[in-house]
Design a protein that fits this description.
globular, 21 strands, alpha+beta, 5-stranded parallel β-sheet, 7-stranded antiparallel β-sheet
Length: 392
């Protein structure tokens, strides 16, 4: 009776008709035995074709779908000890692409999706792949990026065995390392933001051709080259626009521009990606009887580095809005408290300045008098601040 989630399949070949039918029959046979438990299935990102995944969902009706993709890797080097070559850095473009696919399919069926997080290292001889421990900024982006794409469940792979990223060998709870405490902080932030995010869903897309409810403010690599984009994001006919498709007044009635500055010590001073993701309540009743069409905005600092601290990947993100309102309701990711933030006027615009460490995020809505879903001004939450969040 206390089981919250039961994953009934892991990386089954749902492209095979017989295997997919077996999974469908399995879900349909046991569903009534687990009325209050989330019954889910998992595949690796890109394992199942969209058509076969849709067929599985249609017939099996799982409560949740899930995927695992582990973006933090190193070069496979035949001449290096254990074949571990130099680390491969971000941005995790392929992972974003898988998030986008699961996001779109899950919301088409009005069911949640989950994402596995990488907290392990491994050398896989059978496919010449080296998974390395993530850095602090990468671990944080693994959380925040998934949440920005509307993931409702985050699952660590793995916790405390010998290949864990969070404990020194031979593993076990008695040997936590520095990344363990980064994980604790990232998990708390996810829980605090999750008070609202579990009650939100993406706003509608403006076109069926590409994604508009999420915008990438495109960063650059250390040489100044624009970062690549995930599939189904549009950066103009030549693909060279500094941001993906965005039109004033379409996602919200206020945003008019932005400035991103690398304030850390990584990436040769070049700015990294910033993700803006627009949400709305899962149900209009969450706004109360006096309000409708409330818009929420999540901002993620997507700059990471393979080494160093999350502070080393800090960015200042300035968002400029029309001068038609004065304050924002912001959910502080560190405290879990709801904060009303007054925005100063800068060159005729209301400006919000966010100072986010690598991989960190914030969530806010425009102050309209409507309640902040899942929150009240009297909410309290456990406090931890390993990597503080700041507004200026």
């Amino acid at each position: 009776s206390q089981c919250v989630n039961l994953q009934l399949a892991d990386e089954w070949n749902l492209n095979d008709d017989a295997t997919r039918t077996r999974a469908v029959n399995w879900f349909n046979a046991i569903r009534t035995n687990w009325p209050n438990t989330i019954l889910s299935a998992n595949n690796w990102g890109g394992q199942v074709s969209d058509a076969n995944l849709i067929d599985f969902i249609t017939r099996a009706q799982p409560d949740m779908i899930c995927f695992d993709t582990y973006p933090w890797q190193s070069v496979w080097d035949n001449n290096a000890p254990n074949h571990i070559g130099p680390p491969l850095g971000g941005p995790p473009t392929q992972w974003y692409g898988h998030l986008r696919i699961y996001r779109d399919i899950s919301r088409a069926f009005n069911l949640p999706f989950g994402s596995y997080l990488q907290t392990f290292h491994a050398v896989q001889d059978y496919n010449n792949t080296v998974y390395r421990d993530p850095s602090a900024s990468e671990l944080r982006l693994n959380h925040s990026g998934a949440l920005a794409f509307n993931a409702k469940v985050l699952i660590d792979f793995i916790y405390n065995n010998g290949s864990s990223s969070l404990f020194t060998a031979p593993g076990g709870d008695s040997n936590p390392n520095a990344l363990y405490y980064e994980k604790a902080d990232a998990a708390l932030r996810a829980r605090n933001l999750g008070q609202a995010l579990v009650r939100l869903k993406p706003i509608d897309e403006a076109t069926a051709s590409w994604t508009t409810s999420i915008m990438f403010i495109r960063g650059r690599d250390a040489n100044g080259t624009l970062n690549p984009l995930p599939v189904n994001f549009y950066a103009g006919p030549t693909g060279t626009n500094p941001n993906t498709d965005w039109v004033a007044d379409r996602n919200d009635p206020y945003l008019r521009g932005w400035v991103v500055t690398n304030t850390g010590t990584k990436n040769n001073g070049q700015p990294g990606d910033v993700i803006l993701s627009w949400f709305k309540p899962l149900d209009e009743s969450f706004d109360g009887t006096d309000h409708t069409n409330q818009v929420y905005l999540m901002v993620v600092n997507g700059l990471t580095a393979t080494n160093g601290t999350a502070t080393d990947c800090a960015q200042e993100i300035k968002l400029n809005f029309l001068n038609t309102f004065t304050t924002l309701d912001l959910l502080d990711p560190v405290t879990g408290q709801l904060t009303n933030v007054a925005l100063p006027i800068v060159n005729t615009r209301r400006q919000l300045t966010l100072n986010l460490n690598g991989g960190d995020a914030v969530l806010f809505k425009f102050s309209t008098g409507a309640p902040f879903v899942g929150l009240s001004t009297s909410n309290t939450a456990p406090y931890i601040a390993l990597q503080p969040f700041s507004l200026t």
